[in-house]
Amino acid sequence: MMKRSSLHQAACGLMLLFCASCPSWASTFQVNPVRVTLSADKPIAALTVRNIGADSTVIQLQVMSWSQVDGTNRYVPSSDILATPPIFTLPANGSQVIRVGFRQAPKVQGEHAYRLFLQEIPPPLKPDFKGLRVTLKISLPVFVQPAAAVAPQLHWQATSAGNGQVRIQVSNDGLAHAKLSRFELSMEGDPHSLSMPQQPVYVLPGASHDWLVDAPGSIGEHLHLTAQRASGDVVQADLVVSGDVANAGTP
Fold this sequence. Notes:
Number of domains: 2
CATH class of the largest domain: Mainly Beta
Number of strands: 18
Order of helices and strands: EEEEEEEEEEEEEEEEEE
Largest sheet: 6 strands, mixed
CATH architecture of the largest domain: Sandwich
Radius of gyration: 21 Å
Distance between the termini: 28 Å
Strand content: over 45%
Structural class: mainly beta
CATH superfamily of the largest domain: Immunoglobulins
């Protein structure tokens, strides 16, 4: 079942950008679905943008190539993916269907990742304007899959970071992304979970992500980690804290 996304549903992977906003002008919009998957069998996808605010608003689209370097998301303008209409006006309580597709069939071994940004364009300020204006920017993942089936391959490791902290790292050696959430980390023989950030994360092919966790254990400590994939499958890894990156755990 497709999920709806709005200003208050950050768990759907939407990104909000707040700028200056006028109290007398406020609008917000929803997008459904909240992610796009394209392939040679499905070269075009349709999304519905709905204005749930009391005023009309102008929305502009931009597609960016998405990569991850040293755990940081990087975006570069791309013409590989076409999103139309590139700019449109949404009346109050109105909706607009947009279409997203690639310009030519993908010829890649692995999955390619993009982000579709929907940016609200505010109206001109009136001469007597006073106050703040708020605009909304939403980012949706777009994945282009090759003809052959691909999957993520996760590789976990735990290393001592000193000062009572452990660095947990996951690397994706597969050819497809992984979306992970609901993390739980515990020490051997201790039923209490260690505090770990709960923000869902995407790990693209060839990329990695790490967390610093407060843990009283030292080198040689045994840890157990679980996480959930977007499919609902549970990932489990048994780790031994090491002093270097040689330590690894594979679910």
